Amino acid sequence: MKLDVVILAAGKGTRMYSSKPKVLHSIGGKAMLEHVVATTQTLDNTQLHIVVGYGADQIKSYFSANTNMPELHWVLQSEQLGTAHAVQQVLPALDCDNEENLVLVLYGDVPLIKSTTLRTLVDQAGVNGLSLLTVITEKPEGLGRIVREQSGDISAIVEEREATEEQKAIKEINSGIMVVPVAKLGRWLKKIGNDNTQGEFYLTDIVALAAQENCKINSSVITDELEVQGVNDKTQLAILERHYQMTKTEELMKAGVTIRDPARVDIRGELECGNDVEVDVNVIFEGKVTLGNGVSVGANTVIKDSVIADHTTILPGCNIDGANIGEKAAVGPYARIRPGTVLKEAVKIGNFVEIKNTTMGKGSKASHLAYIGDAEIGENVNIGAGTIVCNYDGVNKHKTVIGDDVFVGSNSVLIAPLKIADGAFIAAGSAINSDVAAGELAVARGKQRNISKWKRPSKRSQ
Ligand code: UD1
Ligand code: CA
User: Fold this and answer.
1) 232 C-alpha to center of ligand 2: Å?
2) Model confidence over 183-206: pLDDT tens digits?
3) Is the pLDDT of residue 286 over 80?
4) What does the domain layout of the chain look like in residue ranges?
Protein backbone atom coordinates (compact mmCIF):
# COMPACT_ATOMS: atom_id res chain seq x y z
CA MET A 1 0.00 0.00 0.00
CA LYS A 2 1.26 3.42 -0.94
CA LEU A 3 0.06 6.56 0.77
CA ASP A 4 -0.28 9.86 -1.03
CA VAL A 5 -0.33 12.75 1.42
CA VAL A 6 -2.00 15.95 0.32
CA ILE A 7 -1.50 19.10 2.38
CA LEU A 8 -3.88 21.95 1.59
CA ALA A 9 -2.16 25.29 1.89
CA ALA A 10 -3.54 27.50 -0.87
CA GLY A 11 -5.75 29.80 1.17
CA LYS A 12 -4.81 33.38 2.03
CA GLY A 13 -6.04 33.28 5.57
CA THR A 14 -8.09 36.47 5.40
CA ARG A 15 -8.65 36.58 9.14
CA MET A 16 -4.90 36.79 9.81
CA TYR A 17 -4.88 40.33 8.30
CA SER A 18 -1.42 39.74 6.90
CA SER A 19 0.29 39.92 3.50
CA LYS A 20 2.05 36.70 4.42
CA PRO A 21 0.23 33.48 3.45
CA LYS A 22 -1.35 31.99 6.56
CA VAL A 23 0.66 28.74 6.55
CA LEU A 24 3.92 30.72 6.82
CA HIS A 25 2.99 32.18 10.19
CA SER A 26 5.16 30.44 12.71
CA ILE A 27 4.82 28.34 15.81
CA GLY A 28 7.97 27.72 17.81
CA GLY A 29 9.96 29.60 15.18
CA LYS A 30 8.88 27.28 12.34
CA ALA A 31 6.19 27.98 9.73
CA MET A 32 2.96 26.08 10.41
CA LEU A 33 3.30 24.32 7.07
CA GLU A 34 6.83 23.25 7.95
CA HIS A 35 5.50 21.51 11.07
CA VAL A 36 2.95 19.59 9.00
CA VAL A 37 5.48 18.64 6.31
CA ALA A 38 7.99 17.48 8.95
CA THR A 39 5.32 15.32 10.59
CA THR A 40 4.40 13.62 7.31
CA GLN A 41 8.04 12.85 6.66
CA THR A 42 7.94 10.42 9.58
CA LEU A 43 5.31 8.26 7.79
CA ASP A 44 6.51 5.33 5.68
CA ASN A 45 6.12 4.86 1.97
CA THR A 46 4.49 8.16 1.22
CA GLN A 47 4.45 10.65 -1.59
CA LEU A 48 3.78 14.20 -0.47
CA HIS A 49 1.88 16.80 -2.51
CA ILE A 50 1.41 20.36 -1.24
CA VAL A 51 -1.36 22.47 -2.74
CA VAL A 52 -0.39 26.13 -2.80
CA GLY A 53 -2.05 29.18 -4.32
CA TYR A 54 -1.99 32.48 -2.44
CA GLY A 55 1.67 33.45 -1.97
CA ALA A 56 2.88 30.21 -3.60
CA ASP A 57 6.29 31.68 -4.49
CA GLN A 58 6.74 33.06 -1.01
CA ILE A 59 6.01 29.63 0.43
CA LYS A 60 8.42 27.86 -1.91
CA SER A 61 11.22 30.34 -1.20
CA TYR A 62 10.63 29.96 2.54
CA PHE A 63 11.22 26.22 2.24
CA SER A 64 14.32 26.51 0.09
CA ALA A 65 15.84 29.23 2.28
CA ASN A 66 14.97 27.90 5.73
CA THR A 67 14.84 24.15 5.56
CA ASN A 68 17.02 21.42 4.15
CA MET A 69 14.06 19.33 3.11
CA PRO A 70 14.39 17.47 -0.17
CA GLU A 71 12.63 18.88 -3.24
CA LEU A 72 8.91 18.98 -2.47
CA HIS A 73 6.07 18.35 -4.91
CA TRP A 74 4.13 21.62 -5.18
CA VAL A 75 0.73 21.68 -6.88
CA LEU A 76 -0.73 25.01 -7.87
CA GLN A 77 -4.36 25.88 -7.21
CA SER A 78 -4.45 29.26 -8.90
CA GLU A 79 -7.97 30.12 -7.79
CA GLN A 80 -9.08 29.05 -4.34
CA LEU A 81 -12.47 27.56 -5.03
CA GLY A 82 -12.65 25.35 -1.96
CA THR A 83 -11.03 22.37 -0.30
CA ALA A 84 -12.50 19.81 -2.77
CA HIS A 85 -11.24 21.89 -5.70
CA ALA A 86 -7.82 22.02 -4.01
CA VAL A 87 -7.62 18.23 -3.73
CA GLN A 88 -8.80 17.93 -7.34
CA GLN A 89 -5.64 19.73 -8.50
CA VAL A 90 -3.59 16.81 -7.20
CA LEU A 91 -5.57 14.09 -9.03
CA PRO A 92 -3.37 14.09 -12.18
CA ALA A 93 -0.40 13.18 -9.98
CA LEU A 94 -2.22 10.25 -8.34
CA ASP A 95 -2.58 6.69 -9.56
CA CYS A 96 -6.39 6.69 -9.44
CA ASP A 97 -6.79 3.18 -10.91
CA ASN A 98 -4.89 1.60 -8.09
CA GLU A 99 -7.35 -0.23 -5.82
CA GLU A 100 -5.00 -0.30 -2.85
CA ASN A 101 -3.55 3.15 -2.46
CA LEU A 102 -4.86 5.65 0.04
CA VAL A 103 -4.81 9.43 0.17
CA LEU A 104 -4.32 11.27 3.47
CA VAL A 105 -5.60 14.85 3.42
CA LEU A 106 -4.06 17.33 5.85
CA TYR A 107 -4.46 21.07 6.30
CA GLY A 108 -1.49 23.38 6.36
CA ASP A 109 -3.17 25.44 9.07
CA VAL A 110 -3.50 22.51 11.51
CA PRO A 111 0.13 22.46 12.62
CA LEU A 112 0.31 20.36 15.77
CA ILE A 113 -1.01 17.09 14.40
CA LYS A 114 1.13 14.17 15.61
CA SER A 115 2.47 11.37 13.45
CA THR A 116 1.18 8.70 15.86
CA THR A 117 -2.38 9.99 15.35
CA LEU A 118 -1.92 9.92 11.58
CA ARG A 119 -0.51 6.41 11.66
CA THR A 120 -3.52 5.15 13.64
CA LEU A 121 -5.91 6.82 11.22
CA VAL A 122 -4.16 5.33 8.18
CA ASP A 123 -3.95 1.87 9.77
CA GLN A 124 -7.64 1.83 10.50
CA ALA A 125 -8.61 3.00 6.99
CA GLY A 126 -9.47 0.18 4.66
CA VAL A 127 -9.38 0.36 0.88
CA ASN A 128 -13.16 0.28 0.91
CA GLY A 129 -13.88 3.00 3.37
CA LEU A 130 -13.26 6.51 4.44
CA SER A 131 -11.58 7.47 7.71
CA LEU A 132 -12.18 10.72 9.51
CA LEU A 133 -10.38 12.28 12.42
CA THR A 134 -12.93 13.97 14.65
CA VAL A 135 -12.90 15.67 18.00
CA ILE A 136 -15.56 16.43 20.61
CA THR A 137 -15.42 20.00 21.77
CA GLU A 138 -17.36 22.50 23.83
CA LYS A 139 -16.50 25.14 21.22
CA PRO A 140 -17.58 23.80 17.83
CA GLU A 141 -18.15 27.30 16.40
CA GLY A 142 -16.88 27.80 12.87
CA LEU A 143 -16.17 24.13 12.27
CA GLY A 144 -17.76 21.35 10.24
CA ARG A 145 -20.14 19.19 12.33
CA ILE A 146 -20.16 15.39 12.15
CA VAL A 147 -23.72 14.21 11.53
CA ARG A 148 -24.47 10.69 12.75
CA GLU A 149 -27.52 8.48 12.29
CA GLN A 150 -29.26 6.93 15.26
CA SER A 151 -27.16 3.81 14.70
CA GLY A 152 -24.10 5.97 15.27
CA ASP A 153 -22.97 5.71 11.64
CA ILE A 154 -21.68 8.94 10.12
CA SER A 155 -23.92 10.24 7.35
CA ALA A 156 -22.44 13.65 6.53
CA ILE A 157 -20.30 16.61 7.51
CA VAL A 158 -22.18 19.87 7.57
CA GLU A 159 -20.26 23.13 7.47
CA GLU A 160 -21.38 25.63 10.09
CA ARG A 161 -22.69 28.05 7.49
CA GLU A 162 -24.95 25.36 6.03
CA ALA A 163 -25.99 23.84 9.35
CA THR A 164 -29.46 23.91 10.86
CA GLU A 165 -29.79 25.09 14.47
CA GLU A 166 -30.09 21.46 15.50
CA GLN A 167 -26.90 20.53 13.64
CA LYS A 168 -25.06 23.52 15.12
CA ALA A 169 -25.63 21.97 18.56
CA ILE A 170 -23.51 18.95 17.56
CA LYS A 171 -20.26 18.92 19.50
CA GLU A 172 -18.38 16.43 17.38
CA ILE A 173 -16.45 18.33 14.74
CA ASN A 174 -14.40 17.60 11.65
CA SER A 175 -10.66 18.11 12.11
CA GLY A 176 -10.39 18.24 8.32
CA ILE A 177 -7.97 15.33 8.38
CA MET A 178 -9.18 12.25 6.50
CA VAL A 179 -8.02 9.16 4.64
CA VAL A 180 -9.73 8.29 1.34
CA PRO A 181 -9.09 5.36 -1.04
CA VAL A 182 -7.58 6.90 -4.16
CA ALA A 183 -9.83 4.95 -6.53
CA LYS A 184 -12.94 6.49 -4.99
CA LEU A 185 -11.58 9.97 -4.45
CA GLY A 186 -11.60 11.02 -8.09
CA ARG A 187 -15.13 9.76 -8.63
CA TRP A 188 -16.50 11.51 -5.54
CA LEU A 189 -14.73 14.78 -6.22
CA LYS A 190 -16.41 14.98 -9.65
CA LYS A 191 -19.83 14.78 -8.00
CA ILE A 192 -19.25 17.66 -5.58
CA GLY A 193 -20.96 20.91 -6.48
CA ASN A 194 -20.65 24.42 -5.12
CA ASP A 195 -24.29 25.07 -4.39
CA ASN A 196 -23.79 26.40 -0.87
CA THR A 197 -23.63 29.74 0.94
CA GLN A 198 -19.94 30.16 0.07
CA GLY A 199 -20.13 29.03 -3.54
CA GLU A 200 -17.19 26.76 -2.71
CA PHE A 201 -16.45 23.11 -3.46
CA TYR A 202 -16.36 21.54 0.00
CA LEU A 203 -14.21 18.43 0.41
CA THR A 204 -16.39 17.53 3.37
CA ASP A 205 -19.25 16.76 0.93
CA ILE A 206 -17.57 13.48 0.02
CA VAL A 207 -18.76 12.08 3.34
CA ALA A 208 -22.44 12.26 2.34
CA LEU A 209 -21.53 10.72 -1.05
CA ALA A 210 -19.74 7.86 0.66
CA ALA A 211 -22.70 7.31 2.99
CA GLN A 212 -25.11 7.18 0.06
CA GLU A 213 -22.98 4.41 -1.47
CA ASN A 214 -23.07 2.56 1.86
CA CYS A 215 -19.35 2.89 1.98
CA LYS A 216 -17.85 2.28 5.39
CA ILE A 217 -17.02 5.51 7.25
CA ASN A 218 -14.61 5.05 10.13
CA SER A 219 -13.86 7.70 12.63
CA SER A 220 -11.09 8.20 15.07
CA VAL A 221 -12.10 10.52 17.88
CA ILE A 222 -9.13 12.21 19.46
CA THR A 223 -9.12 13.80 22.88
CA ASP A 224 -6.44 16.48 22.54
CA GLU A 225 -8.39 19.29 20.92
CA LEU A 226 -5.34 21.44 20.36
CA GLU A 227 -3.66 18.73 18.29
CA VAL A 228 -6.23 19.30 15.57
CA GLN A 229 -6.92 22.96 16.23
CA GLY A 230 -6.81 24.97 13.02
CA VAL A 231 -5.40 28.49 12.98
CA ASN A 232 -7.64 31.07 11.40
CA ASP A 233 -6.64 34.14 13.37
CA LYS A 234 -3.89 35.52 15.60
CA THR A 235 -5.62 34.46 18.81
CA GLN A 236 -5.63 30.83 17.72
CA LEU A 237 -2.00 31.21 16.63
CA ALA A 238 -1.06 32.44 20.12
CA ILE A 239 -3.00 29.63 21.81
CA LEU A 240 -1.17 26.99 19.76
CA GLU A 241 2.17 28.72 20.31
CA ARG A 242 1.73 28.48 24.10
CA HIS A 243 0.55 24.89 23.87
CA TYR A 244 3.58 24.01 21.74
CA GLN A 245 5.92 25.77 24.18
CA MET A 246 4.36 23.97 27.14
CA THR A 247 4.92 20.61 25.42
CA LYS A 248 8.56 21.51 24.74
CA THR A 249 9.29 22.74 28.26
CA GLU A 250 7.51 19.72 29.76
CA GLU A 251 9.80 17.39 27.79
CA LEU A 252 12.84 19.27 29.10
CA MET A 253 11.62 19.31 32.69
CA LYS A 254 10.92 15.58 32.50
CA ALA A 255 14.52 15.15 31.43
CA GLY A 256 15.69 17.08 34.50
CA VAL A 257 16.08 20.67 33.32
CA THR A 258 15.12 23.27 35.94
CA ILE A 259 12.85 25.83 34.33
CA ARG A 260 11.84 28.51 36.80
CA ASP A 261 8.61 29.30 34.97
CA PRO A 262 7.70 27.24 31.89
CA ALA A 263 5.24 29.96 30.85
CA ARG A 264 8.12 32.39 30.45
CA VAL A 265 10.50 30.43 28.23
CA ASP A 266 10.28 30.19 24.44
CA ILE A 267 12.01 27.57 22.35
CA ARG A 268 12.03 28.56 18.70
CA GLY A 269 14.06 25.69 17.34
CA GLU A 270 15.93 22.82 18.98
CA LEU A 271 17.26 23.02 22.52
CA GLU A 272 19.49 20.28 23.85
CA CYS A 273 20.42 20.25 27.54
CA GLY A 274 22.82 18.31 29.75
CA ASN A 275 22.23 17.54 33.43
CA ASP A 276 21.56 20.21 36.03
CA VAL A 277 20.76 22.96 33.61
CA GLU A 278 18.86 25.93 35.02
CA VAL A 279 16.86 28.42 32.98
CA ASP A 280 15.50 31.56 34.60
CA VAL A 281 12.50 33.58 33.37
CA ASN A 282 12.05 35.34 30.03
CA VAL A 283 14.60 33.36 28.09
CA ILE A 284 14.28 32.76 24.35
CA PHE A 285 16.17 30.01 22.55
CA GLU A 286 16.34 30.27 18.78
CA GLY A 287 17.67 27.88 16.14
CA LYS A 288 19.92 25.12 17.46
CA VAL A 289 21.16 25.65 21.00
CA THR A 290 23.12 23.21 23.14
CA LEU A 291 23.63 23.73 26.87
CA GLY A 292 26.13 21.49 28.66
CA ASN A 293 25.94 20.06 32.18
CA GLY A 294 25.45 22.59 34.95
CA VAL A 295 24.89 25.55 32.64
CA SER A 296 22.70 28.28 34.06
CA VAL A 297 20.95 30.90 31.98
CA GLY A 298 19.90 34.14 33.64
CA ALA A 299 16.69 36.06 33.14
CA ASN A 300 15.87 38.12 30.04
CA THR A 301 18.36 36.43 27.76
CA VAL A 302 18.19 35.45 24.09
CA ILE A 303 20.42 32.62 22.87
CA LYS A 304 20.52 31.67 19.20
CA ASP A 305 22.47 28.96 17.32
CA SER A 306 25.09 28.53 20.04
CA VAL A 307 26.87 25.87 22.03
CA ILE A 308 27.56 26.52 25.72
CA ALA A 309 29.80 24.03 27.48
CA ASP A 310 29.62 22.55 30.98
CA HIS A 311 29.32 24.72 34.09
CA THR A 312 29.18 28.03 32.27
CA THR A 313 27.02 30.78 33.67
CA ILE A 314 25.08 33.21 31.55
CA LEU A 315 24.03 36.12 33.75
CA PRO A 316 20.83 38.12 33.08
CA GLY A 317 20.19 40.29 30.07
CA CYS A 318 22.51 38.71 27.48
CA ASN A 319 22.12 38.36 23.74
CA ILE A 320 24.17 35.46 22.39
CA ASP A 321 24.16 34.53 18.71
CA GLY A 322 26.31 32.08 16.78
CA ALA A 323 28.78 31.54 19.62
CA ASN A 324 30.75 28.66 20.97
CA ILE A 325 31.38 29.15 24.68
CA GLY A 326 33.69 26.85 26.60
CA GLU A 327 33.51 25.33 30.06
CA LYS A 328 33.32 27.31 33.31
CA ALA A 329 32.98 30.60 31.49
CA ALA A 330 30.88 33.53 32.69
CA VAL A 331 29.01 35.89 30.43
CA GLY A 332 27.04 38.98 31.37
CA PRO A 333 25.07 40.57 32.80
CA TYR A 334 24.21 42.60 29.69
CA ALA A 335 26.71 41.16 27.25
CA ARG A 336 26.26 40.87 23.51
CA ILE A 337 28.01 37.91 21.91
CA ARG A 338 27.77 37.99 18.12
CA PRO A 339 28.36 35.34 15.43
CA GLY A 340 31.78 33.80 15.05
CA THR A 341 32.73 34.22 18.70
CA VAL A 342 34.64 31.40 20.37
CA LEU A 343 35.26 31.73 24.08
CA LYS A 344 37.51 29.10 25.59
CA GLU A 345 37.47 27.66 29.09
CA ALA A 346 36.98 30.08 32.02
CA VAL A 347 36.70 33.19 29.86
CA LYS A 348 34.87 36.06 31.50
CA ILE A 349 32.80 38.55 29.56
CA GLY A 350 31.23 41.18 31.77
CA ASN A 351 28.64 43.90 31.47
CA PHE A 352 28.24 46.00 28.35
CA VAL A 353 30.79 44.08 26.34
CA GLU A 354 30.11 43.45 22.64
CA ILE A 355 32.21 40.80 20.97
CA LYS A 356 32.06 39.41 17.43
CA ASN A 357 34.04 37.05 15.24
CA THR A 358 36.67 36.73 17.94
CA THR A 359 38.43 33.89 19.70
CA MET A 360 39.41 34.39 23.33
CA GLY A 361 41.78 31.93 24.94
CA LYS A 362 41.50 30.19 28.28
CA GLY A 363 41.09 32.44 31.31
CA SER A 364 40.98 35.72 29.37
CA LYS A 365 38.69 38.50 30.54
CA ALA A 366 36.86 41.54 29.28
CA SER A 367 34.96 42.51 32.38
CA HIS A 368 33.35 45.82 31.48
CA LEU A 369 32.33 48.12 28.62
CA ALA A 370 34.29 47.02 25.56
CA TYR A 371 33.95 46.34 21.84
CA ILE A 372 36.03 43.49 20.47
CA GLY A 373 35.70 42.62 16.77
CA ASP A 374 37.69 40.33 14.42
CA ALA A 375 40.32 39.52 17.03
CA GLU A 376 42.31 36.50 18.07
CA ILE A 377 43.14 36.72 21.73
CA GLY A 378 45.40 34.33 23.62
CA GLU A 379 45.19 32.99 27.17
CA ASN A 380 45.01 35.00 30.42
CA VAL A 381 44.60 38.31 28.66
CA ASN A 382 42.98 41.21 30.46
CA ILE A 383 41.01 43.60 28.31
CA GLY A 384 40.40 46.70 30.40
CA ALA A 385 37.18 48.65 30.70
CA GLY A 386 36.42 50.86 27.75
CA THR A 387 38.74 49.08 25.30
CA ILE A 388 37.71 49.43 21.69
CA VAL A 389 39.11 47.27 18.94
CA CYS A 390 38.89 49.40 15.79
CA ASN A 391 38.43 46.63 13.28
CA TYR A 392 36.88 48.80 10.56
CA ASP A 393 38.65 51.61 8.74
CA GLY A 394 35.50 52.76 7.03
CA VAL A 395 36.06 50.49 4.04
CA ASN A 396 37.65 47.22 5.13
CA LYS A 397 37.69 45.06 8.23
CA HIS A 398 41.07 44.18 9.75
CA LYS A 399 42.29 41.68 12.26
CA THR A 400 43.83 42.16 15.69
CA VAL A 401 46.03 39.41 17.12
CA ILE A 402 46.82 39.47 20.83
CA GLY A 403 49.16 36.91 22.42
CA ASP A 404 49.01 35.28 25.87
CA ASP A 405 49.23 37.19 29.18
CA VAL A 406 48.70 40.59 27.58
CA PHE A 407 47.30 43.43 29.70
CA VAL A 408 45.29 46.05 27.85
CA GLY A 409 44.75 49.07 30.08
CA SER A 410 41.39 50.78 30.34
CA ASN A 411 40.12 53.04 27.61
CA SER A 412 42.60 51.83 25.01
CA VAL A 413 41.92 51.95 21.30
CA LEU A 414 43.50 49.11 19.33
CA ILE A 415 43.61 50.15 15.67
CA ALA A 416 43.69 47.08 13.40
CA PRO A 417 45.55 45.53 11.65
CA LEU A 418 47.61 44.98 14.76
CA LYS A 419 49.73 42.41 16.58
CA ILE A 420 50.37 42.58 20.28
CA ALA A 421 52.74 39.83 21.35
CA ASP A 422 52.83 37.72 24.54
CA GLY A 423 53.19 39.51 27.83
CA ALA A 424 52.88 43.03 26.35
CA PHE A 425 51.35 45.77 28.47
CA ILE A 426 49.25 48.57 26.98
CA ALA A 427 49.05 51.65 29.16
CA ALA A 428 45.57 52.93 29.93
CA GLY A 429 44.18 55.47 27.51
CA SER A 430 46.51 54.50 24.65
CA ALA A 431 45.67 54.64 20.96
CA ILE A 432 47.75 51.78 19.55
CA ASN A 433 48.31 51.60 15.80
CA SER A 434 51.61 49.76 15.49
CA ASP A 435 52.61 46.30 16.63
CA VAL A 436 53.87 45.72 20.15
CA ALA A 437 56.59 43.12 20.74
CA ALA A 438 56.63 40.54 23.53
CA GLY A 439 57.01 41.99 27.00
CA GLU A 440 57.02 45.62 25.84
CA LEU A 441 55.10 48.42 27.49
CA ALA A 442 53.29 50.60 24.96
CA VAL A 443 52.19 54.06 26.03
CA ALA A 444 50.45 56.11 23.39
CA ARG A 445 48.75 59.05 25.02
CA GLY A 446 49.40 62.71 25.65
CA LYS A 447 51.93 63.31 28.43
CA GLN A 448 50.39 64.74 31.56
CA ARG A 449 51.41 68.29 32.51
CA ASN A 450 50.50 69.76 35.86
CA ILE A 451 50.34 73.59 35.84
CA SER A 452 50.73 75.23 39.20
CA LYS A 453 49.43 78.70 40.02
CA TRP A 454 46.79 78.28 37.40
CA LYS A 455 43.72 80.51 37.75
CA ARG A 456 40.21 79.35 37.04
CA PRO A 457 38.22 81.68 34.79
CA SER A 458 35.95 83.91 36.85
CA LYS A 459 32.58 85.37 35.89
CA ARG A 460 32.93 88.62 33.93
CA SER A 461 31.10 91.61 35.43
CA GLN A 462 28.65 93.22 32.87
C1 UD1 B 1 -12.32 23.29 7.11
C2 UD1 B 1 -13.39 22.21 6.93
C3 UD1 B 1 -14.19 22.06 8.22
C4 UD1 B 1 -13.25 21.74 9.36
C5 UD1 B 1 -12.12 22.77 9.47
C6 UD1 B 1 -11.09 22.29 10.45
C7 UD1 B 1 -14.06 22.25 4.56
C8 UD1 B 1 -15.08 22.71 3.58
N9 UD1 B 1 -14.26 22.58 5.84
O10 UD1 B 1 -12.96 24.54 7.33
O11 UD1 B 1 -15.14 21.03 8.09
O12 UD1 B 1 -13.97 21.67 10.58
O13 UD1 B 1 -11.47 22.94 8.19
O14 UD1 B 1 -10.05 23.23 10.64
O15 UD1 B 1 -13.13 21.59 4.15
N16 UD1 B 1 -7.56 25.61 1.18
C17 UD1 B 1 -7.00 25.44 -0.07
N18 UD1 B 1 -7.71 25.81 -1.16
C19 UD1 B 1 -8.97 26.31 -1.07
C20 UD1 B 1 -9.54 26.48 0.20
C21 UD1 B 1 -8.80 26.11 1.32
O22 UD1 B 1 -5.87 24.98 -0.20
O23 UD1 B 1 -9.55 26.61 -2.13
C24 UD1 B 1 -6.76 25.22 2.36
C25 UD1 B 1 -6.48 26.38 3.31
O26 UD1 B 1 -5.26 27.01 2.97
C27 UD1 B 1 -6.42 25.70 4.66
C28 UD1 B 1 -7.31 24.49 4.49
O29 UD1 B 1 -7.49 24.28 3.10
O30 UD1 B 1 -5.11 25.27 4.97
C31 UD1 B 1 -8.67 24.67 5.17
O32 UD1 B 1 -9.32 25.78 4.61
P33 UD1 B 1 -10.14 26.81 5.51
O34 UD1 B 1 -10.71 27.83 4.62
O35 UD1 B 1 -9.32 27.24 6.65
O36 UD1 B 1 -11.34 25.84 5.99
P37 UD1 B 1 -12.22 25.96 7.29
O38 UD1 B 1 -13.27 26.98 7.06
O39 UD1 B 1 -11.35 26.13 8.46
CA1 CA C 1 -9.14 26.52 8.84
Assistant:
1) 5
2) 999 999 999 999 999 999 999 999
3) yes
4) 3-228, 234-442
